[in-house]
Amino acid sequence: MKTLVFIFSLLFLSLNSAQAASTGDVLINEIAWMGTKDSANDEWIELHNTTPQAIDLNGWILKAVDGTPTIKLAGSDPANGFYLLERSKDYTGALNNKGEELELFDNKDNLIDLVDASSGWPEGDHSTKQTMERKNATTWQTSQNPGGTPKAENSSPLAAKPRETLPHELAAVSELVPKTTTYFYPIFIAFALAVFSGIIILVLKNKVKIG
Prior knowledge:
By secondary structure, this protein is α+β, with helices and mostly antiparallel strands.
């Protein structure tokens, strides 16, 4: 009996340790700080579980440093999944359109993720309602479409436009072409003067002979 209790205790501890989150395991992944086309009040924040196992979010807190909003989480974030927090349903208090500093703490008050946009949201568009999506650990991007990608993978980065090489290549070629035009006119004028002078000399010589 004691052996069974010991085994169950080990299993319980292993399960608990597997569910314990570390910094970066759950990311603040997308922020609709501008609301939606339907209403500016329809703000939402998406969390992303970057691990291959579900993470228990009970007792977690997502809050702005200025105190609004402060959101108490419940439930779990599925493996490699997304967890959506909607202002109209899950929390109260508006995100400041001029920026916020957001912190995500687990149930042991460990800081799991931080977004410092206190000097202004780096991405997202208030007019078009395109959201601010996480691109990687330190950078963000504006969603390709209005409304963003709630509870789904973020937008793929837009393909870079092909490099317009033709004008540059033409410019490079033009630099290789000898710039003969600049020198052509002085040479032509000198040649014309020489011919004209020669004709005058011949005419004068003929007049002398005739005289």
